[in-house]
Amino acid sequence: MGVHFETQLPTAQNEDNTRPPRPPRPNYNKLHAQPLPVKAYPLPPLIPHNPFSILHIAIVYLSHVISSPSSHPQDLLCAYFSADTRSFHVTDEITARTLWEQGFFGKGSLSRSEPAWLERERIRQGLVLGDTSEEITRKRREERKQFKNERARLEREAIETKLAEEATDHSNSNGHIKPSVAPDVAQTISVEEIDGQNPTSSPAALPPGRSGSPLEKEELIAVPPSAVASDVSSPHLAQKLIINQEHLQLTAEEAFFLVYALGVLEIREPATAQPIPTSRLFSICRSYSYFPPQPSSNLVPDDPFLLSYVVYHHFRSLGWVVRPGIKFGVDHLLYNRGPVFAHAEFAVIILPSYTDAYWSSTAELQSKVKKKTNKSWWWLHCVNRVQAQVKKTLVLAYVEIPSPVIGGEEGITNEAGEVTDIGRFLKRYRVRELILKRWTLNRNKE
Fold it and tell me: Residue 392 catalytic?
């Protein structure tokens, strides 16, 4: 006798009625209206059937020519270099919020992504009501885990009950004649009938406030703390001052992009508060990409910072929001608009490519190149499998490494080997993209 167990899943109507109301989300389109911390002033669109649009374009163009509006802030944003953490710290709260809301730069030193330590501390001390994005994520994971455990318990009890009934029927059939059952008819026993309750509505079957389909894979999008902040619980608690102990932490690629490419950030020495020139900052980033840091005279064209920054600058220039990808075992993650809008679509692995004739000129260089480019298929399959599991597309970014620049050659470097013309130096690099996807038999049948 075939036995089939089925679990009735809640409908969308029941789910909407039983799910507790979630806090309203902020207007992300307004909050993150600027993709970068610079302002653009485009001309109005041309409407062919409206001749006044031509006049509008002419007026706007003449106004920009006569009095051009500034795209950069009056005062440069400020950050400090930390040799201990090999990163750049933004201690001003307004600057930190500006860099996060306008381009998703950096991460909170005491948070997973967005700087939210101060909001979490206010909630913990009862100054405000609500939950932060990290707390919401933790609760949802706990509810999902409890739901799966309860579902497994109900299914296990249903199987044990049915086995006990079959054992009783088998023992009784030795002395009694049981009604015959058609062999081609399979009994369908649901978990609800055996347990005597509906797991979608019973408090014992589902955790409080949870009534969604457990079969749906749910990925959580980070919600800024402004989305869950609520009213102050009492006036006297609101007057309590909490010193923000968190700062925004920028990677070397993010800091140099803001300094060199956008020109909106100024890096200062932590001891003297003096600004660091761009050329010296470039050397610092290259030196501290090694462990221990290397002097400027030992830097080579394929140092880790150069490879990472060339790819970072490449994808930022194409409009992608580039974030660190260490969580998924890659170098960068590419977001279409940002973490609060959708999950990352692509995961980038950086691979150096030594196609220049210089790297094959001697046997010693060939040996070094072979050692740096030696990657196994097992490694590639492992990385690709991880990205497929998290629903991301793997991108192999090949960076073509040029030959070293001899001191003073072409006006790019000085006699000491320090780069003086960063633009011409970076133009010598090229980036090639290759998208790699897993081939599975059941999904790629002809």
Answer: yes
